[in-house]
Amino acid sequence: MNDVGEKIRLQRLTKKYSQEYMAFMLEISQAAYSKIERSETELTLRRVYEIAEILEISPFTLMPPPKHGTAIVLAWRKTMVKLRRFWRNNFKDRLNERKAAYHSSQGH
Predict the structure, then answer these.
(1) Which domains does the chain have, with CATH numbers?
(2) Which of 44, 49, 56, 71 gets the highest tally of CB atoms within 10 A of its CB?
(3) What is the pTM of this model?
């Protein structure tokens, strides 16, 4: 399976998260999130990383296999490591705040 949207959908269902929850966490509408799962929206690397964080999985899980040689894969992995450090330093707290806000808005 190479379709990123389908991979996201399957991971979301595995976690038993609703599209509404995912949309809330990404600060987008449910309709916009639905387009992500249907692969009607081109995803940025940053958005893939945000989705992976919400789903608590590696962003590599969502990526299609490389079409070319291993040098590209190595460069990709180095980039992902840098992005992970950046994400953890800048966005983890915001993600936790959104989770708490979602659960409090749902009366949990």
Answers:
(1) 4-105 (1.10.260.40)
(2) 49
(3) 0.67
